[in-house]
Write a structure and sequence with these properties.
The chain has 480 residues and is an alpha+beta fold. The chain has two domains: 242 residues, Cytochrome Bc1 Complex, Chain A, domain 1, CATH 3.30.830; 205 residues, 2-Layer Sandwich (Cytochrome Bc1 Complex, Chain A, domain 1), CATH 3.30.830. Helix content is 42%, strand content 20%. The protein contains 17 helices and 17 strands. It has a seven-stranded mixed β-sheet, with helices on both faces. A six-stranded mixed β-sheet has the order 12-15-11-16-10-17, with helices on both faces. The protein has a two-stranded antiparallel ribbon with strand order 5-6. Helix 3 crosses helix 9, helix 11 packs across helix 17 and helix 12 runs antiparallel to helix 13. The protein is globular and about 60 Å long.
């Protein structure tokens, strides 16, 4: 089982290699003229699909993809770390970890063997807002393996000896993570941006808080928050969608627990002025810099314009302004990037994401890199972008259609994302059409409205010798 941050800055890094080749060449004048008006019928990409809400409240969406006999299931339960009680942060993660330690009379070893024996994969991942269960196997094995998954979710053993060993391993993992500057940066960033909010703490918790968690706490969390009415299931397979739904209902339709009503999260803290924190870690030779500013909701009408503006500024690998200036021209960083997270849905509400920019640089160039990053954000806000930059972004997004829904996992992820935010079918195609028909004025207006070099949160993880210049409000703390 893995615990994951949501949103994760590392996701932007994985895009770099994909974008470099796509944007190595800019568009010609002919391409610019040809792409001023662009359309694509989303129906060309449609899948055979069925959906049903089971009697116990589980929403099931089944999609048919017939290329291979593969069964890909994604199941999201609204039970993430935002539900951790104060002082026992890490409880959601520890509860999920306990599920496959033994369930329904099967030991942890037998559970693992059930999947590995037929080449299947099963994982449980906790984020800030949910617990995700993922199963991938051959379709002929789906019935058997889904039965094992059901035992793990519905009938965990919660044995005392398993809990003691798992708790010890978790605390050890936290100690190891605290020695990694990237992890320290991530945790410190969330604490600064979301200060005092349930989103502020790491999913895995802290060693001090996990040490307080008891087996009764785990059982209580499971009883309170693991219930079918908070579950979405998406399956992509070569099976007929109706047959897929019947299979899910066979194994999960008997889940009857009620749980407690989900709480309403407090409003997200506004990022006003400059929040600055320097975290000192002895004997590291780089600055790990993370900057965050206000974002928008995924459902905002400005989403695609802002997404495109950010792509030009910091999301397009070597072609982005940030990378060109800070890495290529000035040689200050090996990787530098920026992106807008789409936010998240929880309960009946949709919450805005944040703007995130990150880079690593030498201690001696930390102040210069921060200054240049903010200067580029300010320049984009005040002066906007060029037609050539916009057309290069459109060209990239159109090209991305070919690889956006290639695999069963990709399709399942896209459908689940749409379910989370209440987006229409094939929204990812509609988005590309919308982006392809954006005007430069629309993109520049989004940059002017949302790029904000004056109100931000800034975290710098550096050696004890580093001093941040120009920020008298900066708070220095020693990482322990």
């Amino acid at each position: 089982m893995n615990s994951e941050k949501n949103p994760s800055p590392s996701g932007a890094l994985r895009l770099l290699a994909l974008t470099v080749l796509s944007l190595a060449c800019g568009p010609t004048k002919t391409e610019v003229e040809m792409t001023k008006s662009w359309t694509l019928d989303p129906k060309r990409f449609a899948f055979e699909k069925a959906e049903k809400t089971l009697e116990n409240g589980i929403r099931v969406v089944a999609v048919r993809k017939t290329k291979l006999p593969i069964f890909q299931l994604e199941m999201d339960l609204e039970a993430g770390s935002v539900l951790d009680p104060a002082g026992k942060e890490g409880l959601a993660s520890l509860t999920a970890d306990m599920l496959d330690e033994g369930a329904g009379g099967l030991s942890a070893e037998r559970i693992a063997e059930a999947f590995e024996g037929v080449g299947g994969r099963f994982s449980i991942n906790v984020s800030k807002t949910s617990t995700n269960f993922s199963l991938k196997c051959l379709s002929p094995d789906a019935d058997t393996l889904l039965g094992v998954v059901a035992k793990v979710i519905l009938s965990p053993d919660f044995k005392k000896e398993d809990f003691a060993k798992l708790k010890k391993r978790t605390i050890s993992s936290i100690y190891s993570a605290k020695s990694d500057p990237n992890t320290v940066s991530d945790w410190s960033f969330d604490e600064l941006v979301y200060q005092g909010h349930p989103l502020a703490h790491p999913v895995i918790g802290y060693d001090t808080t996990v040490s307080r968690i008891t087996l009764d706490d785990v059982k209580g969390f499971y009883k309170d928050w693991y219930c079918p009415s908070r579950v979405r299931v998406v399956v992509v397979s070569d099976m007929a969608p109706e047959s897929t739904i019947a299979l899910v209902e066979k194994h999960l339709g008997g889940w009857k627990s009620q749980g407690k009503p989900l709480p309403t999260l407090p409003p997200l803290p506004r990022i006003e002025g400059k929040r600055v924190k320097v975290v000192r870690m002895p004997e590291i030779n780089q600055c790990y810099i993370a900057l965050g500013a206000r974002g928008i909701k995924r459902t905002s009408p400005d989403y695609n314009a802002l997404r495109t503006a950010n792509y030009i500024l910091g999301g397009s690998g070597f072609s982005s302004r940030i990378t060109k200036r800070i890495r290529v021209e000035m040689g200050l960083a090996y990787s530098v990037y920026g992106y807008y997270s789409p936010g998240f849905a929880f309960g009946d509400s949709i919450y805005p994401g944040i703007y995130y920019a990150g880079l690593e640089t030498k201690l001696a160039s930390g102040n210069q890199a921060i200054s240049e990053l903010l200067s580029l954000i300010k320049e984009a806000r005040e002066k906007g972008f060029s037609e050539e930059e916009l057309e290069a972004a459109k060209k990239y997004y159109r090209g991305s259609i070919a690889r956006s829904a290639e695999t069963y996992g990709q399709v399942a992820g896209l459908v689940m994302y749409g379910e989370e935010f209440g987006l229409p079918d094939l929204y990812w195609i509609n988005d590309i059409v919308a982006i392809s028909n954006l005007s430069l004025d629309q993109v520049n207006a989004a940059a002017k409205e949302y790029f904000d070099p004056d109100n931000f949160a800034l975290v710098v993880v550096a050696d004890t010798s580093f001093r941040l210049e120009g920020y008298p409000e900066a708070k220095y703390t020693d990482w322990k």
